[in-house]
Amino acid sequence: MHDLPGLSPRQLLAGYAHGIFPMALSADDPRLSWYDPPARGVLPVGGVHASRSLRRSLARHDWRAEVAEDFDAIVGACADRAETWINAPLRTLYAQLHATGHAHALAVHCDGDLAGGLFGVSLGAAFFGESMFSARTDGSKMALVWLSDHLDRCGFLLCDTQYLTPHLASMGGVEITRRAYRARLAAALAQEADFRALRPRPADELADDLRTAAAAEG
Length: 218
Known about the structure:
It is built from eight helices and ten strands. By secondary structure, the protein is an alpha+beta fold. The protein has a single domain (9-217), classed as Aminopeptidase, CATH 3.40.630.70. This is Leucyl/phenylalanyl-tRNA--protein transferase. It is found in: Cytoplasm.
């Protein structure tokens, strides 16, 4: 961990390309530090696990996902909690990356209301998930299901979650060594992908694939 006196969007992307990422200690602390954990969390691209209750909710309610145009609103919702590492300098950097096509947000709606979402940074065929939120039950889980599917369809090879949490592990996230992560990162950076190339799939198509995957797992 190293304190950063200032960070530009170009420097931020260079850090991601080298396997490190910045965080603040709190929303009120203007300083940023680089982090390089010995183990890294990654989420399957096109293979996230959806529980039976999650699949049932997808079938019973009017769910839909979209690449969010109001990027800052999603970042703000992710930061709207008692403790967050997203400070003002980071929000500015993310907005600048969004303007240049290197940061994206995904929003999910249920029965007409915003239910959850997430945002992250893209570079090559790597997506670096930053944060997510839920506004109702299953909101962030649905966002992860759609994200995994969307990244796969758009040509991404890596979905980095930085750290592995029980929430991510329940959906198929795993922890890999720093060395293994950097090898996967290098392979992803050698390819190109476009987060905005396609729209997220309709819920009924996604539900069909999830049912097929669950049946194959037995």
